[in-house]
Amino acid sequence: MKTTQETTPYIEVRGLKKYFSTKRGTLHAVDDVDLFINRGETLGLVGESGCGKSTLGRCLIRLLEPTAGEIRVNAEDGKGTDITGLGKAKMKEMRKKLQIVFQDPYASLNPRLPVWELIAEPLRVNRVCKSKEDMQKRIRYLMDVVGLAERLENTYPHELDGGRRQRIGVARALALEPEFIVLDEPVSALDVCIQAQILNLLHRLQKEFSYTYLFISHDLSVVKHVSDRIAVMYLGKIVETGEYRELFRKPLHPYTQALLSAIPVAKLNVAREQILLEGDVPSPVNPPPGCRFMPRCHYAQEICSRELPKLREHEPQHFVACHFTGNLQPKTK
Ligand code: SF4
C-alpha cells in the first residue's frame, strides 16, 4: 500500500505463542513471536502454507486465544492495551477496532442472506444504528465505499462473482469503523484481474481512512506490491522482517532468499537462479531444537542444530534470525 510511513507501533506483540493439542503431541503453530505494526502501514506476512501465518493473524484480533504472550493495541505511548487480558465485554468493544477479511468470500458469507442482510449483521449485533433509516443509510454508504451498486442489495452471494463477494467481506469488516484489519489471503481465491481491483480498493480505503493492515499471503509478488514492511514466517517463527524495498534488494535469511528466487522475472533476457529447497518442512509437532530451517538450509553449521537463532536487528529496521547473517558459508558435507 506504500503509504507515508509513520513509525509509531499501533500493535506490538511480544512472546506470542499458540499451541494446539493433537493426538501426536503439541503443535507449535505460533512460537514465541515478537512483532510490531506501525499505525497506517501495511505489514505483509509471508510464508509457505501451514507456517502459522493465518493462526498468527487470528491471534492478533483474538479470534483464536493465544497460549501465551502479549498483544498491545494502541501501543504508541509504549504501553497500549494488552488485549490478551481483556474480559468478554471489553473485548467486544475492542473487537470493533480489530477486524478481518477472509480468504474465501464464498465460504465466509451466509449463502441464505442477501447483500443487505450480510452487511447489516455486524451493525445489528453491535447495535450500531439507532433506527431502520439509520441502518439503511449506513448500509448504502458501506456499499458505496466498497463499490457495490445499490441494485445488488437484494442479491445473494451465489449470484455474484468472486470480486463482488469479496467486496461484501470488506464492507462487513468496515461496518464497525475499525482501525486494524487482518487481510487473510484476501485475493488468492480470485482471478488475476479481479485481484487487482480488490488490491486497489484496499489501497484506496487505507489512504482514505488510515487503516493499519496485516496482509497475509503465500505469494511474495502480491505482498511486494501492497506492503510497507514484510515479515517472513517459517514453521511458527518470524525469520526476517524489514522495509519491503530493503528486503527485496538484500534478503539476508536463507529462507527469504529461496522464496524470492522463486518469483518469476517479467523481463526478457533476465534469468534468476532459483534456489531449490530440499527436504520437507519439519513437523510443527516436533520442531527441531535449534534453527527451524536447519534441515533445509544450504548454509547450516553445527551450532544451527542445537541453538535457536534470535531475531536480531542486523541493519536499521532489518531483523534476521540466523546465526550467520551477512556471513553465510555453504555447509561442508
Ligand atoms: Fe541456516 Fe543456520 Fe542460519 Fe538457520 S541459523 S538459517 S540453519 S545458517
Structure description:
This protein has 333 residues and is α/β, with parallel strands linked by helices. It has two domains: 9-240, P-loop containing nucleotide triphosphate hydrolases (Rossmann fold, 3-Layer(aba) Sandwich), CATH 3.40.50; 248-320, no CATH class. The protein is built from ten helices and twelve strands. The chain has helices at 53-60, 88-95, 105-108, 115-125, 132-145, 162-174, 192-209, 220-226, 244-249, 254-261; strands at residues 9-22, 25-38, 42-46, 68-73, 81-82, 98-101, 180-184, 212-217, 229-234, 237-243, 312-315, 318-320. The strands form two sheets. It has an eight-stranded mixed beta sheet with strand order 6-7-8-3-9-10-12-11, with helices on both faces. The protein has a four-stranded antiparallel beta sheet with strand order 2-1-4-5. The longest helix has 18 residues, at 192-209. The radius of gyration is 21 Å and the shape is globular. It starts with 8 loop residues before the first strand and ends in a 13-residue tail after the last strand. The model is unreliable at 1-6 (pLDDT under 50). The protein binds iron/sulfur cluster (SF4). Iron/sulfur cluster binds at residues 254, 291, 293-294, 297, 299-300, 304, 309, 322-324.
Structural class: alpha/beta
Kindly identify the CATH topology of the largest domain: Rossmann fold
- In CATH terms, the superfamily of the largest domain is P-loop containing nucleotide triphosphate hydrolases
Q: Indicate the percent of residues in helices.
A: 25-40%
What proportion strand? 15-25%
Rg of Cα set? 21 Å
Q: Which second-level CATH architecture of the largest domain applies?
A: 3-Layer(aba) Sandwich
Extended strand count: 12
